[in-house]
Amino acid sequence: MSGLGFTVYPAIDILGGEVVRLRQGDYQQVTRYEGHPAEVAGRLCDAGARFLHVVDLDAARSGQSENERAVRSIVETAASYGAAVQVGGGIRTREAIARWLEAGVARVVIGTAVRNVELVAEWAQEFGGHRLVAGLDGRKGRLAVSGWLEETEWSIFDLARELAKVGLVQALVTDVERDGTGEGPNLDLALGVQQSGLFAITSGGIGSIDDVVAARRAGLAGAVIGKALHDGRIHLGELFQRLAQEEEGGAC
């Protein structure tokens, strides 16, 4: 596969209208952060972010969005900086996809519904496969859905191959057991998906700038940064400077 380039996706997870992070997808292990979601988006864009990753955690769990106004405010804020937004969480119907795309979202992440390959194929034909991202979240290579509360017998790699056949281009690959831990991303999992035919964005476990650089060096399409960014362990300005050095070949 020829590359798409590498994109950094600062994450804004929303639960009950607040910016939060979960540990390993556990709704009982919540860290809350100060600031309205739109304010957080503005700070990230001020620091150089050009693509935000937004998750509606209420919708991911129940399928019902309680945070649409907050997400729309993020989209408007990002647009004022010339930045884009991809949104995930509870997007399980054609109507949900259409609503977010009409709201100005660049891409939507399909999680729980991604198992229905025939349905995803219809959506890809209608909306364009480049605007749908396969949310491949799992434990030990098996797909987890419904806000990671339900584990399945689906192989993430087999599913990636089927989704590539019906026109999807990218996958957001999350190792649930590493999410929010800062222990480093599961690059092997993401690379396995990429070898199956979808450009892979790694998510879960990134705790340092070195982790992001490792993902880029591995040839992945991007990385989502969440808790480490909001906790101050990663500063976007420093990260983008390091990545620029990598691009120029100035770092070993």
UniProtKB/TrEMBL annotation:
NCBIfam families recorded: 1-(5-phosphoribosyl)-5-[(5-phosphoribosylamino)methylideneamino]imidazole-4-carboxamide isomerase
Gene Ontology MF: a single term: 1-(5-phosphoribosyl)-5-[(5-phosphoribosylamino)methylideneamino]imidazole-4-carboxamide isomerase activity
Record's catalysed reaction(s): 1-(5-phospho-beta-D-ribosyl)-5-[(5-phospho-beta-D-ribosylamino)methylideneamino]imidazole-4-carboxamide = 5-[(5-phospho-1-deoxy-D-ribulos-1-ylimino)methylamino]-1-(5-phospho-beta-D-ribosyl)imidazole-4-carboxamide
Catalytic EC class: isomerase
Family per similarity comment: Belongs to the HisA/HisF family.
Residues forming the catalytic site: D13, D137
Protein name, UniProt field: 1-(5-phosphoribosyl)-5-[(5-phosphoribosylamino)methylideneamino] imidazole-4-carboxamide isomerase
Pathway(s): Amino-acid biosynthesis; L-histidine biosynthesis; L-histidine from 5-phospho-alpha-D-ribose 1-diphosphate: step 4/9
Enzyme Commission number(s) from the entry: 5.3.1.16
Gene that produces this protein: hisA
GO annotation, cellular component aspect: cytoplasm
Keywords, in A-Z order: Amino-acid biosynthesis, Cytoplasm, Histidine biosynthesis, Isomerase
Cited InterPro entries: Aldolase_TIM, His_biosynth, HisA/PriA, HisA_bact_arch, Isoase_HisA-like, RibuloseP-bd_barrel
Domain of life: Bacteria
Subcellular location: Cytoplasm
GO biological processes: L-histidine biosynthetic process; L-tryptophan biosynthetic process
